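Shipment paperwork, digital attachment
Item: protein structure file
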Amino acid sequence: MKTKQFIKTTLGALAVTTMIGASATWAGESPEDMVLVPGGSFLMGVDKEVKPKTEKMSRQQQLKYRVSREAFHDEGPARHVLLDAFHLDKYEVSNKQYGEFIKATGHPAPAYWDDHRRNKPEQPVSGVNWHDATAYCGWANKRLPTEAEWEKAARGPEGYKYPWGNDLDSSKANFGRKQEYTANVGSFPEGKSPYGAYNMAGNVFEWVQDWYDPNYYKTTKEMVNPTGPREGVFLSATGTYVDRYATGEKRVIRGGSWYAPAESVTNTHRFWNDPMNNSYGVGLGFRCARSVEDDPSLQARTHYMDALINMGAEKYSEAMKSISKALSMDTVNPEYLKVKEMIQKQIR
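Attachment content:
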């Protein structure tokens, strides 16, 4: 029994060490000022009460499963989602970057462009609508992240409640009107997500690709690279309210803002806005993503990472499937071959 436990402990430690080394190497291959979010599954959303049979979960699954009575009805039920690897901007798009976009394309300036409290070069652009954000990302040879991609990048492999962990800490993000303006995009390094993305909580709400539907989590069966509803639901259609920004189809925004309360900066919190609105809460910004599915070496690395994670969870059959996929794309990689050998020893 002691021998078996020793093997598990040693293998787990080796897997983690190897994974950290692999992440460091891999991060070096990311485009400038982007972080790599490995592919694989994660738990998206949060339940308001315990629903699954937790006693049947592995220890790793129990650690990642969270319940929040404070969650809004649109944040659940939690469900497993499988994503391909992708890159995400390390920082929110800054005024400096957006200014370069304006100069190159003649695109109209955003709201607050002349507000000296919010237009410093290293502050995030904070007055853009969904179409502005989409246009910028296209110009930069990128795209807006999906809602699922955004949440995975914020939660990290442990499924945190906040980008930095599970406890609210006002020293790690700009929210709740702690200061009456946005912070520089590289501020609050202690609050970055496990994958290295800054300010995913607070500062500016961030546009994502998806249409908003409050019942989407309850009804969708899309589990692999979900892109949200095909169209937005019509909200606040009272027939008497004429504000077009309060009615009609909405796009999702995530992460809260410097103006928003603490309840809005959890990683699962969802909010929405009219895609034409550029001024909600004095903080509508974004960051961009880029797919990596056209790079076989990174895809192989994704499967390799999955294998290590499954080894750490002692799920050796799943680990073997993952490492076999990696080797199908890179047949002579010595790291992959060594890991396969380690898995085979555990299965025998």
